[in-house]
Amino acid sequence: MKVGQDILIRLINVILLTFCVVFSAQAGPLQNHVSIQEAIKDFVMQQDVPLENIIVTLTSAKKQLNISQCAIPLHIAMAPGAKQVGRTTVSVSCLSSQPWKINLAVHIDGKINVLVARHPIAHRNFIQESDLEFAPRLYSQLNRGYYVSMDRLQNMEARRNIRPGQAINANLIRAQKLVNRGQYITIIAQNGSLNLRVKGKALMDGLQGQTIKVKNLSSKKLIFAEVVSAGTVKVHF
Predict the structure, then answer these.
(1) For strand 222-229 and strand 194-202, is the pairing parallel, antiparallel, or unpaired?
(2) Buried b / exposed e across 212-237, counting CB within 10 Å, b at 16+?
(3) In whole angstroms, what separates CA 140 from the centre of its chain?
(4) Residue-level pLDDT at 141
(5) Type and span of the H or E element at 220
(6) Computed from CA positions of residues 40, 42, 45, 48, in that sequence, does the dihedral angle turn out positive or negative?
(7) Confidence of residue 15 (pLDDT cuts 50, 70, 90)
(8) What contacts 211, CB < 8 A, 6 or more positions away?
(9) CB 200 within 8 A of CB 216
């Protein structure tokens, strides 16, 4: 009885070993996650992405993906509506004779040149171009936003103290008050190429581009006009 059991156990072991060998041979090598990261990185570098030193991290895949190694270069595509940077989703496909396709959650990071403070900028100080300079920063560290041009920083002041090297974002600045309530101002009345200038008085505080109520001192009329510069508003007629 015991001899029969030993033979049966040996036979089962041989069958299991044979099955494992056959399965291993059929499965073949697996696609390495590093090769997928590199393929995604190459794809991102070919897109119109304003990043340098791109870093790709797989955030939804284990160290070893259980997919067979592709015999040809991987095909990468962004999922419909997916972002090009930050947390996003990409499609990874093998278009060989044994095709497969997976969607992966990834994090795409890199450096971008943004405007930072050249030196300390005190609270309520007017932001000037000489106060700022360009410096590379990791995109993932700019979650409060950033600026890449002075165009949108015209007539802005520091909302709080700004440290040297700190990336400028909308939380650090605010539009500077260009008109104060009760201030005597210049009203530009524009009609095509015709500009008339009259004296007026502001009945409200005003920021750049804001529409405020003013009084025409000549006609005594109350009108609404757009703040265009310090002490100056414009109205179209």
Answers:
(1) unpaired
(2) bebbbeeeeeebebbbbeebbbebee
(3) 8
(4) 93
(5) none
(6) negative
(7) very low
(8) 224, 225, 226, 227
(9) yes
**CB under 8 Å, gap of 24 or more: what pairs does 195-199 form?**
none
What stretches of the chain adopt beta strand conformation (E)?
Answer: 30-32, 52-58, 64-68, 75-78, 86-94, 100-117, 132-138, 156-158, 173-175, 177-179, 184-191, 194-202, 206-207, 211-216, 222-229, 232-236
Does the structure show a pLDDT above 50 at 12? Answer: no
Whether 235 has a pLDDT exceeding 70, the answer reads yes
Cα–Cα distance measured from residue 93 to residue 224, given in angstroms and rounded to the nearest whole number: 60
Number of residues in the chain: 237
Could you tell me how many helices (H) and strands (E) the chain has, helices first?
Answer: 2, 16
Structure tokens at 91: 């499609």
pLDDT at 205: 93
Residues 79-108 have a mean pLDDT of 90
| Residue indicated by tokens 């990336």 | 167
φ/ψ bin of 11: left (φ > 0), alpha (ψ from -120 to 50), beta (otherwise): alpha
At residue 191 the predicted structure's pLDDT band, cuts being 50, 70 and 90, is: confident
Global pTM?
A: 0.64
- Domains (range + CATH), the chain: 30-109 (no CATH), 112-175 (3.90.1210.10), 177-236 (2.30.30.760)
Give the side-chain half-sphere CA count within 13 A for 132.
25
Q: CA torsion 210→216→221→223, rounded to 10°?
A: -10
- What's the confidence (pLDDT) of residue 5? 56
42-58 pLDDT tens trace: 999 998 888 999 999 98
